[in-house]
Specification:
The complex is a heterodimer of chains A (803) and B (531). Chain A is of the alpha/beta class and 803 residues long. Chain A is built from 32 helices and 21 strands. Chain B has 531 residues and is of the alpha/beta class. Chain B starts with a strand and ends in a 5-residue tail after the last helix. Chain B has helices at 19-25, 77-92, 101-105, 112-120, 124-134, 138-144, 148-152, 164-177, 201-212, 241-252, 270-276, 292-295, 331-349, 371-378, 399-406, 421-428, 464-471, 497-500, 505-511, 522-526; strands at residues 2-6, 9-13, 49-52, 58-60, 71-73, 193-197, 216-221, 257-260, 279-282, 318-320, 447-449, 452-454, 479-481, 488-490, 517-519. In chain B, helix 9 links the parallel strand 6 and strand 7. In chain B, the strands form four sheets. A five-stranded mixed β-sheet of chain B has the order 2-1-5-3-4, with helices on both faces. A five-stranded parallel β-sheet of chain B has the order 8-7-6-9-10, sandwiched between helices. Chain B has 20 helices and 15 strands. Classes of the chains: A alpha/beta (803), B alpha/beta (531). Chains A and B meet through helix 3, helix 4, helix 25, helix 26 and helix 27 of A and strand 4, helix 2, helix 17 and strand 13 of B.
């Protein structure tokens, strides 16, 4: 090995690395945190830095290389100046994320084997989900989010970003300092998805306007409201007035809205405001819109339909509280259940209540929570641990992120109750690094809880103590599997191991360990407060209580919802979701993400129930619910999900490592126009083998999206084997053509990124199929609906203007 | 303690014992690739799956603890199917040949790369042993064989094939010219008597194999000397009669009787042979078709009807091979068939199932080599072009020419064909990986550092080597790099295998269940040959 006084190449400095090591510790388990520190410092992992770490800690070269190449967070090559994260979540995928990526790569002149452009300005990263499904397709350039992208607008987004970079000077608004006695309260949702839709800009505008107008009001950031399709959502509360709720607010709307409720205080401000408002009316391009356009009422039919069927347990007080304000949480009755448990109930009594409630694990598999707690309780050994599994990674699912961002104290209270019940004194919150806001709020909440005596030594003045530590996951979906998660906390590659032994017997560092999902913990204080019976009264015989879902896809109203178990898929799609958007036909629901399956529209009366969903071939999963319409190709959907699991396979066992790869290749052949009828049989056999033979849940459930689509949409597979994509999605199986309806406007020719359409003004245009990259741009812009998609000599997609 | 049933046999084991260990106490073998006694188990290959009869679930036996009341089946249809699929998935992705393409092309199945390595090492005695394991008359064939092996040789993609045929002749000539030409061991006399009809290449090959197996053997030849078609006048220049005579005399030293001037069906009846001998092999050459009918054997348009694998005719004691079955001109085919018929006869005489030559599972790389792949193979071979013998008149290699030419071999055969567990199980489970081959195979890579060779394309990611290196506290060791389908084993920081495995390279090579990690030197390689 090299000498301790290794000469590190500039600019890697030993002081920097020592500082990182001092913060993380030098033990073997610190490896992930060390790597995260190095990457935060250098934007990648320079080999010299890794060697230095090996020389100055207990971390071995084998461990540091094995770990750094396992997790996708880590970059081993220098990255560009800016990172473009393109969301490949399910909703973004069905809304064209791949075409966006292709267009972006073309625009940035990226070579096929490099994710950084030749000028080293941008590095493209595929991310599983940014959790802004309502903005789909969406991408983030550094911290700026661009939504509703098209192959055309994505290039404007890059130019816009660069233009912003040129603007010097910081335009960020300063927090508005409201007097302590301010009576008015203005609530603004500041979850990551609200922020992606511009709520931070709205907040800044509020700060500015309140200062300019001299209005006395408190701006209160609140957690997720759930109505993602309506965000940014602004709520103005004044004593003696009905709350004013404004949806889809833009920063520019803020002064108008404020004027509806407040009179500027000072005369000068009033005049300035009036003049400015008048000038705005004069010079704005758009017609004057009254602020009331944005005003909504929870009694409005669509809002009532969205909220009506929901039951808020984990989401109690949704949109009303400042997530990190511990005093407000306490005022709302927070931590009383923890106190009650610690002072009035034995651990066995707490477990009995949880058992009686019928609560099952909300991570997906649905193991009875009370039973799990009992087995940890009775496991021998004093040194027990609890873990929060916040490694939500399903594309299209962001329930856990929202809960962590909005209800950190509720989750911590649930963890403390669980720790008391099972007899744990330490705990780890494992949260994926892709959720920086969730991590920041949880960090703050843990610190405040320790200051206030709700965590740490002598919780609530009792003999019970609980130390919680936070670990950021580094980008491996498989770490949602509990044994892999534990290995990851131990500083290893996140490979699952066979159970038994279960973590309840032998978990973190071989000690009895309770692993529960975020939503499970978030539900506990409600159960204790309202009683096991109240919880058990909701839902079905086998599935009690409520479940949180991220409702996304092709419905009119998207958002984060919590529904009683037993509600049917149809109620969710039609009532809450408001039916299918754009006048298309409801085709299927993808439920449970990559472990789940596609339930066809004809089985829409299937209730949301663990067993009923499994019988239908799907799975509850952690709560992704993506609605698909007749424009979605089911073979392609199966390929998408399998592509995800294949990429996320840890590679340990044969069936998952090679089996999913071969399955994916068959699906790629089918979508790529080289499939054969015999492929269907091979796919079915291999799916069964992978399901049966894989080591862990990831492999065992990976074939589900394939098996359900084969079961319910076999004719689509057969069509693909015969070279036809009935939904007109699979590029290799379709061609674009221009019909006689063409008016010769040349818009398609101008739109085409590869010049496959020669402009022929006033004449019918034609598309060169060889050149065409099937980006769908021409069909989107054609005002006459003359661009159609053909597959197997028939029109599978009509002109955009026509349906 | 836990009491459970394995394959309907009760067994009591200590709590925490794995199903694999429990099965072993009953003497039930469960296949594994990734399990190794004394190392932490990781459950990777999934070959050890067994069925829980009550639930129908499959469990990996290597890491599932035996539980009280379990009912386990280790060889149910489901289990065998799962194991076969696991092997097919592993092999569908396996980049390598068990045997070299030359060996596969050789009708007699001679291990050509092994012979070339022996020549290259100057071990001519070793070389003739390898040659004569399959070929009775190498000096003769070395002169007249059309060498299908050379047509299959991968070296052709670079320049020209290795001069295999001339090298075989070189080995055989050197042996015949030596003071004590090689005589293979022969088993104890069995007491059985076998008649071989026809003294051509097929008959001599059969007699050679029978004699080695300990059977008393009589060769009936209608002319006055054995040799058959090898004495055809047009071959006289290339194959001088003196060479043939010497070679036949050498195999005759094994102990066999020649009766010349005897023509079956004319001067002696088949019935007569059947009475005097325990088995008869009909191995005559061309031009005897008119004799078929009187023999009372079923015949087709070309000759006697015989099973293509066992060479057995309708008469269980009578076997037929070579031109007696289908006319052909390739002597090496006749030699191969004589050997195969002799093996079948030996099986019958010993009371075993008559199945003929059993071919072990033989994986093929398939597809032409890409330039990078060829370069990887060339890195282990002499770069010189094909050697043309200076002695143009006889076409024989001089010793230094032979050594040089043998060094041109790419050694594209597996380094561990006899010890590879993957091959063994593939054979046992009747695997056909064709269904799970990728459309485009990954490129072959060969990493050579010191005496260790690593071929990622043969690695099954079981991690045994990683665990051995970790347990031995290697300063650098090995690690998994990447994850999922593209995971591979490597030395941290792109260092060499020598640096990574400074202490336990040999142990890793020995423990690797496939040919992925192997020793580069010839002796280690030879120890891995098929018994």
């Amino acid at each position: 090995m090299s000498t301790p006084n290794v000469q590190l190449a500039d600019p890697i400095r030993a002081e920097d690395l020592d500082r990182i090591l001092d913060e993380t510790g030098r033990g073997r388990a610190a490896v992930i945190a060390v790597l995260q520190g190095i990457q935060a410092r250098y934007r990648y992992l320079p080999e010299a830095a890794l060697r230095y770490v090996c020389d100055h800690s207990e971390i071995t070269p084998a461990a540091i290389v094995g770990v750094s190449t396992f997790y996708t967070q880590f970059r081993l090559r220098p990255a560009g100046q800016h990172t473009i994260r393109i969301c490949h979540g399910t909703t973004c995928h069905v809304k064209g994320a791949s075409a966006i990526t292709d267009a972006l790569r073309r625009f940035l002149k990226m070579s096929a084997d490099d994710d950084t452009d030749p000028e080293r300005r941008f590095t493209i990263e595929k991310v599983a989900c940014l959790g802004c499904c309502t903005l789909a397709p969406v991408m983030q350039i550094d911290t700026v989010t661009y939504g509703h992208l098209t192959t055309d607008s994505v290039t404007h987004a890059v130019t816009d970003f660069l233009a912003r970079q040129q603007q010097t000077g910081n335009t960020a608004a300063l927090p508005h300092a409201a007097p302590a006695d301010a009576l008015a309260e203005i609530r603004i949702g500041l979850g990551s998805c609200c922020m992606a839709r511009g709520s931070r800009e709205v907040r800044d505008a509020l700060w500015r306007s309140l200062g300019q107008l001299g209005i006395q009001a408190t701006v209160k950031p609140v957690g997720c409201v759930g109505m993602c399709h309506q965000t940014p959502l602004l709520e103005i509360l004044r004593p003696g007035e009905a709350p004013g709720i404004y949806a889809q607010v833009k920063a520019d709307d803020v002064p108008k809205i404020l004027r509806q409720h407040f009179r500027p205080r000072r005369l000068s401000a009033r005049l300035r405001s009036a003049a400015k408002g008048f000038l705005e009316q004069l010079f704005t391009d758009e017609a004057w819109e009254p602020a009331s356009r944005h005003r909504i009422d929870y009694r409005d039919p669509p809002i009532a339909a969205f909220i009506g069927p929901q039951k808020h347990v984990a989401l109690e007080d949704c949109g009303q509280m400042d997530p990190v304000d511990i005093e407000e949480y306490v005022r709302h009755g927070g931590f009383t259940m923890l106190k009650q448990c610690l002072t009035q109930r034995t651990p066995e009594e707490v477990i009995a209540i949880v058992r009686a409630s019928g609560l099952r694990g909300r991570g997906g598999a649905g193991f009875p929570t009370g039973v799990k707690w009992s087995s940890v309780r009775v496991a021998s050994g004093d040194d027990k641990t609890i873990i929060l599994n916040g490694d939500e990674g399903d594309p299209g699912a962001f329930m856990d992120r929202m809960l962590l961002e909005s209800y950190p104290y509720r989750i911590l209270e649930g963890m403390a109750i669980a720790a008391y019940a099972v007899g744990a004194r330490t705990g780890v919150l494992y949260i994926r690094h892709e959720y920086p806001l969730a991590v920041a709020r949880i960090r703050e909440a843990v610190a405040r809880c320790e200051q206030s005596g709700f965590l740490g030594e002598s919780v609530c003045g009792t003999g019970f103590s609980l130390r919680l530590q936070i670990m950021e996951g580094a980008g491996a979906f498989v770490c949602g599997e509990e044994t892999a998660l534990i290995r990851s906390i131990e500083g290893e590659r996140g490979t699952p191991r066979l159970r038994p032994p279960y973590p309840a017997q032998s978990g973190l560092w071989g000690k009895p360990t309770l692993v529960n999902n975020v939503e499970t913990y978030a539900t506990l204080s409600w159960i204790l407060k309202h009683g096991a019976q109240a919880f058990a009264a909701m839902g079905t015989e086998r599935s009690r209580g409520t479940k949180v879902f991220a409702l996304a896809g092709k419905v009119n109203r998207l958002g984060l919802i919590e529904v009683p178990m037993g509600i049917t898929i149809r109620q969710v799609v039609d009532d809450i979701g408001g039916g299918i958007a754009d006048g298309r036909r409801f085709k299927a629901v993808q439920i449970g993400g990559p472990s789940g399956g596609c339930i066809p529209a004809r089985l829409a009366d299937t209730p949301i129930d663990y067993e009923a969903l499994v019988e239908a071939g799907a799975m509850m999963g952690s709560g992704g619910l993506v609605v698909l319409d007749d424009a979605d190709c089911m073979v392609e959907i199966a390929r998408y999900f399998l592509g995800f699991t294949q990429h996320e396979s840890c590679g340990k066992c044969t069936f998952c490592r090679i089996g999913t790869t071969r399955m994916l290749e068959i699906l790629e052949r089918l979508c790529g126009g080289t499939g054969k009828p015999a492929d269907l049989d091979a796919l079915e056999r291999l799916s069964a083998a992978v399901k049966r033979g894989s080591l862990c849940g990831l492999g065992k459930t990976a074939p589900n999206p394939v098996l359900t689509t084969l079961r319910y949409f076999r004719e689509e597979y057969e069509a693909h084997a015969a070279g036809v994509c009935p939904a007109g999605q699979c590029k290799a199986l379709i061609t674009y053509q221009i019909t006689d309806d063409c008016i010769g406007c040349t818009r398609c020719a101008q739109q085409c990124p590869v010049h496959a359409i020669p402009p022929t003004p006033y004449e019918r245009h034609a598309i060169n199929s060889e050149k065409c990259v099937r980006c769908d741009g021409c069909r989107t812009v054609c005002p006459a609906g003359a661009v159609v998609v053909m597959s197997g000599n028939r029109i599978v997609k009509h002109g955009h203007a026509k349906h | 303690m836990a009491t459970l049933n394995i394959d309907q046999r009760p067994v009591e084991v200590l709590a925490g014992t794995t199903l694999l260990a429990a099965a072993r106490t009953l003497g039930i073998a469960v296949p594994t690739l990734c399990f190794r006694d004394g190392l932490e188990h990781v459950t990777s290959c999934m070959l050890c799956v067994v069925e829980d009869v009550r639930t129908g679930c499959l469990h990996p036996a290597c890491s599932t603890p035996a539980q009280d009341g379990m009912d386990i089946a280790t060889a149910s249809g489901t289990v065998l199917e799962a194991r076969r699929t696991a092997l097919e998935l592993l092999l569908g992705d396996h980049l390598g040949d068990c045997e070299g393409p030359c060996t596969r092309a050789c009708a007699a199945g001679m291990n050509i790369p092994d012979m070339l390595r022996a020549i290259g090492a100057g071990d001519l005695h070793g070389a003739i042993r390898i040659v004569k394991r399959h070929i009775a008359l190498p000096a003769a064939l070395g002169r007249i064989c059309p060498a299908p092996c050379e047509k299959a040789c991968r070296r052709s993609s670079q320049d020209a094939p290795v001069g295999i045929c001339r090298l075989k002749r070189f080995v055989a000539d050197a042996d015949l010219a030596s003071s004590a030409p090689y005589l293979p061991d022969r088993l104890e006399p069995s007491g059985f008597r076998v008649a071989v009809v026809g003294g051509g290449p097929a008959g001599l090959s059969a007699a050679y194999a029978l004699a080695r197996a300990g059977h008393a053997c009589t060769v009936f030849e209608k002319s006055d000397r054995p040799g058959g078609g090898l004495r055809a006048p047009e071959l006289c220049d290339t194959l001088p009669p003196a060479v043939l005579d010497a070679e036949i005399a050498q195999i005759a030293r094994l102990g066999m009787t020649f009766e010349t001037g005897v023509e079956i069906g004319v001067t002696r009846s088949l019935q007569d042979l059947k009475q005097r001998f325990d088995a008869v092999i009909l191995a005559w050459g061309a031009g005897a078709a008119d004799l078929l009918d009187p023999l009372g054997l079923e015949s087709g348009p070309h000759g006697i009807t015989a099973n293509w694998r066992t060479h057995r005719t309708g008469d269980p004691a009578v076997f037929a091979c070579g031109n007696a079955v289908v006319p052909g001109r390739m002597a090496v085919r006749a030699v191969a068939q004589g050997q195969a018929a002799a093996l079948a006869v030996d099986q019958m005489l010993r009371g075993e199932a008559v199945v003929g030559t059993l071919h072990l599972y033989n994986h093929r790389l398939g597809g032409a080599l890409a330039p990078d792949e060829l370069a990887a193979f060339m890195a282990g071979a002499a770069p010189e072009p094909r050697t043309e013998p200076a002695d143009r008149a006889t076409g024989a290699y001089a010793a230094n020419e032979a050594t040089g030419e043998a060094a041109r071999c790419l050694h594209c055969d597996c380094r561990k064909p006899g010890t590879c567990q993957l091959r063994r199980y593939a054979d046992e489970y009747g695997v056909n990986p064709r269904g799970w081959k990728p459309a485009h195979r990954r490129p072959v890579e060969i990493v050579r550092h010191g005496n260790t060779v690593y071929e990622p394309g043969k690695c099954i990611a079981c991690g045994i080597c990683v665990r051995i290196a970790t347990a031995a506290r290697e300063p650098l060791g090995l690690t998994f790099i990447g994850r999922g389908f593209t995971v591979r084993i490597g030395v941290p920081f792109h260092e060499s295998l020598e640096k990574g495995l400074s202490r336990v390279a040999a142990a890793c090579v020995e423990a690797c269940p496939t040919g992925a990690l192997a020793a580069a030197d010839r002796r280690a390689r030879r120890s891995g040959e098929v018994p």
